[in-house]
From TrEMBL:
Gene3D superfamilies listed in its UniProt record: 3.30.530.20
Gene Ontology process terms (BP): abscisic acid-activated signaling pathway; alkaloid metabolic process; defense response
Pfam families: Bet_v_1
Source organism (scientific name): Stephania yunnanensis
Cellular component, GO annotation: cytoplasm; nucleus
Keywords in alphabetical order: Alkaloid metabolism
UniProt-recorded name of the protein: Bet v I/Major latex protein domain-containing protein
């Protein structure tokens, strides 16, 4: 009889990646991977909910697939996250293939180094069934394709992302231990609201007691961009006097950043002085990916940039597209000119109320319309006034300001181009600036 003739099955996929093993493992081991994967593979997953845990060993996820999928949903648990071997193992614990007759089902991912900037992602599915009959029943539904697609999506994500760092140093005439006592205090959220009443509307503790793992919900005054988000204390190191706070929901993540973290490091200068090093690190997909040109299999960055005769265009967008949003809390834009993007004879024209600048380009850029929500978002912010927004037909908008308000100004005249586009599954509003001569 074969009723209890245990059958073990294994499916395997390997993908060579032109990135370091550490960079690839960083993504696979990231506690935020469930959210990233839903964004990278919107057609594969309906949603992924964290049931238990914080992304480490023991974390339980509830995965739901689009209607009609087999299986439709299941629970899985992270049973191995081995940084030394770069190995992650995820085991189904309820529903899914277990309900279809499998006695055991596990996916694993291991990253093998193949040189300085090359590695191999080995994705594997292992399952056990009690009989050939059950094996024949489940085999049509079990495939390595989803793990292969995940490996490809993650490799593309690594190729296309752009990491930025903003840093500020402030020397303080106070002992490092005294300054760190404030930064590490569980009472800091309450203190910050009192110290900066015009910056924060409120800061609420969602979870925790001010230590590692604490989650805060920050709300800014009406018109702020972003208006609200949640952040988590991921590091509070008393020895190094280091605190790291990572955004986990809303805020710049909803604007397209794939990663955003603030950190504060207190460096001792003398027994009576120290330096506060504040740093913001954020990550966005590269602009070439936004323009539909981010396929790493076909994209040669050096050749592509040489062929794309948009003077300083790549540098302009990559270096400054997000900076307006990320720095507006420190220095609000106050000078806007009317902007229109036109495509004519392979030229992109930026038209202001008193200037015309033609920028030749061998490849036309797509004109991205502003949606009603984007128009309303701009109108709600203090970047522009409602009267300076022409809502048009509800799908396009022009931002403008009178020439007189620009006269006599020594600062740069800033041209603001708002690109509203659909990337992955969500709409993001980005801006980039160009210095107008």
């Amino acid at each position: 009889m074969e009723k209890y003739s245990i059958i073990r099955k294994e499916l395997k996929h390997e993908l060579q990646v032109n990135a370091s093993a550490d960079d690839v493992w960083e993504v696979y081991s990231d506690p935020d991977l469930p959210r990233i994967i839903v964004q990278l593979l919107p057609g594969v997953f309906e949603k992924i909910d964290v049931v238990v845990g914080d992304g480490g060993i023991g974390t339980v996820l509830h995965l739901t697939y689009p209607p009609g999928s087999v299986p439709l949903s299941y629970l899985e648990k992270f049973v191995t996250i081995d940084d030394q071997r770069r190995l992650k193992e995820v085991k189904q614990i309820d529903g899914g293939y277990l309900d279809m007759g499998c006695l055991f089902y596990m996916d694993s991912f291991q990253i093998f180094e193949r040189g300085c900037d090359k590695c191999v992602i080995v994705s594997k599915t292992e399952y056990i069934v009690p009989s050939q009959e059950i094996a024949s029943r489940v085999e049509p539904y079990i495939s390595i394709d989803s793990l292969a697609g995940m490996a490809t999506a993650i490799s593309n994500y690594i190729y296309n992302r752009v990491l930025k760092v903003l840093k500020h140093k402030l020397e303080v005439q106070a002992p490092a231990k005294d300054v760190w006592e404030v930064y590490s205090s569980p009472e800091l959220p309450t203190l910050i609201v009192k110290l900066l009443p015009t910056v924060f509307e409120k800061i609420e503790i969602v979870k925790g007691n001010g230590g590692v793992g604490t989650v805060l919900h920050l709300t800014y005054p009406p018109g702020s961009i972003p208006l609200t988000y949640k952040e988590k204390f991921v590091t509070i190191d008393n020895r190094r006097r280091l605190k790291e706070v990572k955004q986990i929901e809303g805020g710049y993540l909803d604007m397209g950043c794939t990663f955003y973290m603030d950190s504060f490091l207190i460096k001792e200068r003398s027994s009576k002085s120290c330096v506060i090093v504040s740093k913001t690190e954020y990550e966005v997909p590269s602009v070439l990916a936004f323009l539909g040109r981010g396929d790493p299999e076909e994209f040669d960055e050096e050749k592509e940039l040489m062929a794309w005769s948009f003077p300083d265009g790549y540098k302009l967008v990559q270096e400054r597209m997000v900076n307006v949003l990320l720095t507006n809390g420190k220095a609000r834009l106050s000078h806007l000119t009317q902007i229109v993007l036109e495509e004519e004879n392979d030229e992109i024209e930026v038209i202001t109320t008193n200037q015309r600048h033609s920028i030749g380009a061998k490849r036309k850029l797509v004109k991205y319309p502003l949606t009603k929500n984007s128009v309303n978002s701009l109108a709600a912010s203090d970047l522009v006034s409602k009267k300076s927004l022409d809502h048009g037909d509800g799908n396009n908008a022009v931002v403008m300001i009178d020439d007189e308000e620009l006269e006599g100004k020594e600062e740069e005249k800033i041209a603001l181009v708002s690109l509203h586009y659909r990337l992955i599954r969500s709409c993001y509003l980005f801006t980039f600036t160009r210095q107008m001569k």
